[in-house]
Amino acid sequence: MWSWGSQPQPARVADDENEEHQTEAGRFKTFLSILRKFIGVSDLASVRFSLPSQLLEPTPNLEYWNYLDAPNAFVAIGTADDPVDRMLEVLRFWFTKDLKYVKGKPCKPYNSCLGEFFRCNWETEDDAPLIDTRALRGNGNVPSSSSSSARSVEVTVPNTGLGSTNSGSSSSVSISQTPPNPKKPVRISYLTEQTSHHPPVSAFYIDCPEKGLHAKGFDQISAKFTGTSIKVMPGEHNLGIFITVERRNHETYQLKHPPAHLGGILRGSLGVTVSDMAYITCPETKLKAILYYYDEGWLGRSTNKVEGIIFRYDPENDDKEKISDVPEEDILVRLGGAWKEKIVFTLGPKPISDHPPEEQITIVDLGPLAVAQKTLPPADQMLPNESLRLWGEVTKAILAKQYSKATALKQELEEQQREKARERDRKGEVWKPVFFEQATHPAGKPTLTEKGREVLRRAQRGEWSLEGPQALSAHQPTDAGTPRQTLAQDRQPCTTGRTGVLHHRQHSHHRLIDIAADRGPSETSETIQDPLTAFRYGPPAAQPIFNTEDHGSVHARNRTRTTLA
């Protein structure tokens, strides 16, 4: 974390000699002593230093940082026929996307290397309750339903946590209990690549063709240590998540992130809070949501309180930044609750407290939810720059509590990357991303290259090899150990039990935010090798293989067989 800047070499913090006596208290004391050196630094992202391995969570940053903690909430976006209900579906996804913050503890994953990439699938049931508020708003009829296909909102759908009422009314909102295809899970594919080092930026793409959904964006953060907390904010290239619903005339939602704080540093009890404003806009439907996250309460105790509204806005004159800026007659929905617990909504401009409990509809209850498992590529089909393989040996050393070895391996990797950067400088080469067209984009929307599109197409078919099909069996990677061998149980395909249960991964705790400017490159400077050392389209014989081992522009050359370098 905080590993970038202009200094020629990063500052280092020595490992504790007595590795067997690393405790939570000891790690926290070390962490705090490091932070004190950066009080007043305007942006920790401009500072380079390398943390000792005992302070790291043994997981890559790109694996950790994603927005599909509850993938069934994502695939439900666009289901409703009414635009207001679709905005509510997006808000339901918004409150579930960071479930790891609720279920886990703060931690520090590995920083990402330039050109490092991560890919995975989620297999999820299409079981999120249908949101249909048209009857209550008086501008439509709730679709007819029977007791076997729908129930009204006063009945909680077992274990989903994705919508119910507190009590009461049987006529306000219809919730479907029957998913479109309950026997076949929906597949979501994910690809992310570290596209820039200065500034630290990664691009991501989420694809669900079965539901006509995709999402994309750039992740970049800036951070500042105030002495009592770390404030984390979106970086200049992070304009949020862009979700496109293809079957709804390609309407696109832009979800802008609010600032977050890592607090409790002086108390020795770390926790994440969110403050200030978040915004969701859809120009096609002319609907906007404003969410206000309250600051910490008295004596620094967080209430996790959030309130919000949905209202009609003018995309050409989007000047409403606070809830108080919006005229009451434009407010269609009010939301409120605790973002770590339960969120309810009511219809119309009247405050939620003025509505009886039966009119306060639960849009999401995070209590029963758990972070969904990922489906990962087999270890023998990962490329050298794939996150789990790249950091595999460091991970094994940390899990074995061999912290000095882990630090040495990490530093060796860092030096390799710096040497690659120096070599590019000598040759006058400019590094280019492999899966995305641009390292950054002023609109905040990354564009996939043909190789990126092909990776996602293959992932949708459950194909993980990035070589020609005949070459794969003869050319397995051998230069890196099997990643995460001791966590094999954490690499099983997602299994869902009863409807809507999202299973925890088998870690002792879930990773939280990359505490400060950690969404960028590693504690080092550059990359060891571009991701696609072997990637072929079409028949296996004598086809072009895309190779970027020179770290310049992507070029093609002919080979009859491929190997993983």
TrEMBL record:
<dbReference type="InterPro" id="IPR000648">
    <property type="entry name" value="Oxysterol-bd"/>
</dbReference>
<dbReference type="GO" id="GO:0032934">
    <property type="term" value="F:sterol binding"/>
</dbReference>
<dbReference type="GO" id="GO:0005829">
    <property type="term" value="C:cytosol"/>
</dbReference>
<feature type="region of interest" description="Disordered">
    <location>
        <begin position="134"/>
        <end position="186"/>
    </location>
</feature>
<dbReference type="GO" id="GO:0016020">
    <property type="term" value="C:membrane"/>
</dbReference>
<feature type="compositionally biased region" description="Basic residues">
    <location>
        <begin position="554"/>
        <end position="565"/>
    </location>
</feature>
<dbReference type="Pfam" id="PF01237">
    <property type="entry name" value="Oxysterol_BP"/>
</dbReference>
<feature type="region of interest" description="Disordered">
    <location>
        <begin position="1"/>
        <end position="20"/>
    </location>
</feature>
<dbReference type="InterPro" id="IPR018494">
    <property type="entry name" value="Oxysterol-bd_CS"/>
</dbReference>
<comment type="similarity">
    <text>Belongs to the OSBP family.</text>
</comment>
<keyword id="KW-0175">Coiled coil</keyword>
<dbReference type="InterPro" id="IPR037239">
    <property type="entry name" value="OSBP_sf"/>
</dbReference>
<feature type="coiled-coil region">
    <location>
        <begin position="396"/>
        <end position="426"/>
    </location>
</feature>
<feature type="region of interest" description="Disordered">
    <location>
        <begin position="543"/>
        <end position="565"/>
    </location>
</feature>
<feature type="compositionally biased region" description="Low complexity">
    <location>
        <begin position="158"/>
        <end position="178"/>
    </location>
</feature>
<feature type="region of interest" description="Disordered">
    <location>
        <begin position="464"/>
        <end position="491"/>
    </location>
</feature>
<protein>
    <submittedName>
        <fullName>Putative oxysterol binding protein</fullName>
    </submittedName>
</protein>
